[in-house]
Design a protein that fits this description.
Pfam families: DUF397 (PF04149). The chain is α+β, with helices and mostly antiparallel strands. 31% of the residues lie in helices and 22% in strands.
Length: 65
């Protein structure tokens, strides 16, 4: 297992470059999910707890149904 972020963009993010990237591979080993702006990959990232990320995804799924 690596402790380096493995960034990915959602397949639903085809909206002209206005998207974020996440590195969920760190959720198990560190308990965090880093988030960054895809337009500035060398810029800062925001790390949220894996629990907060799961809650966010749950709310996003509810709002899309």
């Amino acid at each position: 297992m690596t402790d380096n972020p493995q960034w990915f963009t959602s397949s639903y993010s085809d909206n002209g470059g206005q998207c974020i990237e996440v590195a969920v591979n760190l959720a198990a080993s560190r308990g965090i999910v880093p988030v960054r702006d895809s337009k500035t990959p060398d810029g800062p990232s925001l790390s949220v707890s894996s629990g907060a990320w799961s809650a966010f995804l749950g709310l996003a799924k509810l709002s899309s149904s």
